[in-house]
Specification:
By secondary structure, the protein is of the alpha/beta class. It contains seven helices and nine strands. Bound molecules: adenosine-5'-triphosphate.
């Protein structure tokens, strides 16, 4: 029997004007597995993630998520998507903790990170190393704190499909480790991940052998752009 598929990218390309910014790319990811998108600057990682998120359409080929074209899933299955593509839009007068409370209020007390009951706001902040800044406003955070805050808010959504672009950016070694642990926990809890990264340790973790003896994920390597 064929493996179930959460993300299916078939011969997808993206062209802007006359420039092909995403070369022909194909891969499948099953539920609870990862696709780790790697490649040099400008190779098309963000472009590919935007296609998988349904935020953009391929010029050629197809991109499906959760059994439908990705752009359709974006409209009809919003609750199943947790996206971090660029910065997190924030409310300047809500604290870090209040943002997570808002996420929980919007999406309901469902499984988060596969844990029942879902972790409370303070537990999620502790997991992300953000306890110290729980009562600060987004404008008061350092750039690394801002990045972990964005990741924590994204992972606090209950969606089955998590798409994150270079989550390691601006993080020091300790927070990179936490970032890795959070993404691994999401994966081992059964969520599907599509992650673009330049972090070798994150790539190794997300493609390592999981508790079921299978590789947790596949690598999708994009070639260097013509310069
Ligand atoms: N809207 C656009 N119009 C024209 N070119 C674009 C557009 N969006 C992206 N590009 C180009 O597409 C190429 C791939 O960009 P993309 O952001 O996907 O690369 P990346 O692999 O994520 O790079 P990095 O590692 O630097 O984040 C780049 O050369 C970029 O300039």
């Amino acid at each position: 029997m064929a493996e179930p598929v959460t993300v299916s990218v078939r011969a997808a390309t993206r062209t802007h004007g006359t420039v092909e910014v995403l070369e022909e790319t194909s891969f499948d990811v099953g539920p609870g597995r990862a696709a780790v998108v790697v490649g040099p600057n400008g190779s098309g990682k963000t472009t590919l993630l935007r296609l998988v998120a349904g935020a953009d359409l391929p010029t050629r080929g197809t991109v499906e998520t959760l059994g439908a074209p990705a752009a359709e899933t974006r409209q009809t299955r919003r609750d199943e998507l947790a996206l971090l593509l660029g910065g997190l839009p924030t409310y300047p007068d809500l604290t870090v903790a209040e943002h997570l409370t808002l996420v929980a209020a919007a999406w309901g007390p469902r499984h988060v990170l596969g844990r029942t009951p879902a972790p409370g706001v303070d537990e999620a902040l502790a997991d992300a190393g953000l306890t110290r800044v729980r009562d600060q406003y987004p404008g008061e955070l350092s750039s690394g704190e801002t990045q972990m805050f964005a990741l924590a808010c994204t992972l606090y959504r209950p969606g089955a499909l998590v798409i994150v672009d270079e989550p390691e950016q601006r993080l020091d070694a300790g927070w990179r480790r936490r970032c890795r642990d959070l993404l691994l926990a999401a994966l081992d809890a059964g969520r599907t991940l599509v992650v673009a990264t330049h972090d070798h340790d994150l790539r190794a973790a997300l493609t390592s052998v999981g508790p079921d003896g299978q590789a947790r994920g596949v690598e999708v390597a994009l070639a260097a752009p013509q310069r």
